[in-house]
């Protein structure tokens, strides 16, 4: 049984453009326009099973992409705890050591938040439980996509800082009897996104 999973990062939010930690922000008109324009450039398989993070920005992205989605809590962004909604530059000034540790140590979590390692474990369990043939599309967050790549490649969690995931970019994973593999990486307008090959 072959599963072809396309993970798509949601469109940019106002908080992202302001350098703020997420706090369940919806897309603004610019984000919706970006997602709609991206949809026109890619051959997205809208008949595929579509899953989505419960976050408003992910749901708004899915709607702009023309997808009818089922919410998957495992696709939620990392929990940023007490840092939710705060600007990174201001936080780095007030808590320089803590922010520096967070950017390097996958086991460090913001107060009342979730570490990258915890996200990796959550996403890995979800991938292992995803048991269906055919195409699956998932609208999610950069952190979740990084976690999926680290998990599939069995890479050290500390490598998460070396994986860049821009808004409205996608990676493709395949699951076969041999397990998960990174199939390809597609960014911004690659017409192959979401099509079985």
TrEMBL record:
**Highest taxon of the lineage:** Bacteria
Query: What is the protein name for this chain?
Result: Histidine phosphatase family protein
Q: Which organism is it from?
A: Paraburkholderia lacunae
């Amino acid at each position: 049984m072959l599963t072809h999973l396309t993970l798509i990062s949601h469109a940019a939010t106002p908080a992202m453009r302001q350098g703020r930690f997420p706090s369940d922000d919806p897309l603004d008109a610019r984000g919706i326009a970006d997602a709609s324009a991206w949809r026109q450039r890619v051959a997205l398989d809208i008949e595929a099973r579509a899953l989505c993070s419960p976050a408003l920005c992910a749901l708004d992205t899915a709607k702009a992409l023309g997808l009818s989605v089922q919410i998957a809590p495992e696709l939620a962004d990392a929990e940023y705890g007490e840092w939710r909604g705060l600007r990174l530059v201001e936080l780095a000034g007030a808590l320089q050591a803590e922010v520096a540790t967070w950017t390097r140590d996958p086991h460090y979590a913001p107060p009342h938040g979730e570490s990258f390692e915890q996200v990796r474990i959550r996403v890995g369990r979800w991938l292992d439980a995803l048991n269906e043939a055919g195409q699956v599309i998932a609208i999610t967050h950069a952190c979740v996509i990084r976690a999926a790549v680290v998990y599939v490649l069995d890479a050290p969690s500390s490598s998460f800082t070396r994986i860049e995931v821009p808004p409205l970019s996608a990676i493709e994973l395949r699951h076969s009897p041999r397990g998960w593999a990174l199939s390809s990486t597609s960014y911004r307008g690659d017409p192959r996104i979401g099509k079985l090959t």
